[in-house]
Amino acid sequence: MKKRIVAGMLTALMAASMVACGSSDTATETTTDTTAEESTDTAAEAPSGDKITVGFAQVGHESDWRTASTNSVQDAFSEANGYDLQFVDCDNDSAKQIEAVRQFIQNDVDYIVIDPIVSTGWDTVLTECEDAGIPVIVIDRTIEDSDKYVSWVGSEFMNEGLASGAWLKAYAEAKGITDLNILVIEGSNGSSAQIGRTDGFKKYADAEGWTILDSQDGDFTQDGGQQVMESYCKSYAGKFNVVVCQNDNEAFGAMDAMKAAGVSYGVDKDVILISFDACKAGLEYVQSGDINADFMCYPLQGSYCADIVKALQNGETVAKQTFMTEPWYVAEDILKSITYTNNAGDEVTEDLIQVTDAASQASY
Ligand code: AHR
Predict the structure, then answer these.
(1) Any domain includes 2
(2) Average pLDDT over residues 199-205
(3) Which residues line ligand 1 (CB under 6 A)?
């Protein structure tokens, strides 16, 4: 199906939407609207009844989060829903991801969905999409060096990092722990998820005078988390009491490494363990007290994408940015909420949810 936005119109559309690009000033949903005007050039239109073709350049398959994200987009853009989805697993390789987008342009798809592996290096290929008149929707991670996309749907990673720092500060105070010596296992370097979580947490570490002993890339994988933690257990034996893993799969690997090294973790153990994602398996570990706190990153963005495509097909306005609502989960009930200044500069108080069977089973 071709309800193609012609290149000139797409340029105007993107120019109109530049105003709010890069701003992340609300925790829920921002609605800087853009309108997709349909081409009246009927020569480009295929017979009605055709499927809408969508190319999706996915990051890879590194985590439970990623699997849920892939399933969500594939479900939303299913054949039964009237789509022909071209899916590329980019295996965490930025060059492969750019190549996939160029292939979608060659294939003359109607829409391109990108979950950017890294946040920079995008302007050239997005200009090529614009020149071809193909609207781009960005999901999950952000693009920082180009605004040539119609809409973005994802997480405020900085707030996830800030919330984890605010929680650790309040938790340490409640437990009477005064000396925090921290090891961080970062997500894939250069991704906005890694950058936001690192920067947000570091704000607290700097302000509170915590010691970050080391911070290394675990690539958002279980193997990566395990390898980094094995090396940490050798280099920092007996010197750390907090481990921050930037996703659940890294935490699973880190737990295996700590267990093997005889380091206990979780509620009232040697090490406070913090994680992100709050996938089902992650929340089960929170419930059992092995992970102290888990900050959700919500991956089910497929239906949001499909709604954007439908709106664009109908020439309707779409929000430039849509932020997922993300709860924070904890193992104990000693703290009910945290208060912190979010990335928009607003002081917010947010509930801490003690994990129950219902909460873990309801997760992805
Ligand atoms: O971009 C989202 C992050 O990427 C998730 O935290 C992680 O699990 C994934 O691999």
Answers:
(1) no
(2) 98
(3) 62-63, 65-66, 140-141, 193, 220, 247, 276-277, 297
CA of 246 to the centre of ligand 1 (A): 8
Which of the listed residues 58, 63, 90, 326 should we mutate to test ligand 1's pocket, taking the one with most ligand atoms within 8 A of CB?
63
- Clarify whether residues 147 and 174 are in a common domain: no
Least confident among 21-30, 226-235, 262-271: 21-30
CA 210–ligand 1 middle distance (angstroms): 26
Per residue in 233-262, pLDDT (tens digit) is 999 999 999 999 999 999 999 999 999 999
**pTM assigned to the model:** 0.89
Domain shared by 19 and 84, yes or no: yes
* Residue 230 included in any domain: yes
* SS3 annotation, the chain: CCCCCCHHHHHHHHHHHHHHCCCCCCCCEEEEEEECCCCCCHHHCCCCCCCEEEEEEECCCCCHHHHHHHHHHHHHCCCCCCEEEEEEECCCCHHHHHHHHHHHHHCCCCEEEECCCCCCCCHHHHHHHHHHCCCEEEEECCCCCCCCCCEEEECCHHHHHHHHHHHHHHHHHHHCCCCCEEEEEECCCCCHHHHHHHHHHHHHHHHHCCEEEEEEECCCCHHHHHHHHHHHHHHCCCCCCEEEECCHHHHHHHHHHHHHHCCCECCCCCEEEEEEECCHHHHHHHHCCCCCEEEECCCCCHHHHHHHHHHHHCCCEEEEEEECCCCEEECCCCCCEEEEECCCCCEEEEEEEECCHHHHHHCC
Q: CATH number, domain at 317?
A: 3.40.50.2300
Question: Domain of 149?
Answer: 7-155+298-323
Count of domains observed in the chain: 2
Could you tell me the two tokens for 100? 């996939």
For residue 276, the ligand 1 atom closest to its alpha carbon is 6
**Atom 2 (ligand 1): residue with closest C-alpha?**
193
Judgement on whether residues 211 and 286 belong to the same structural domain of the protein: yes
Q: Cβ–Cβ contacts within 10 Å for residue 315, how many?
A: 12
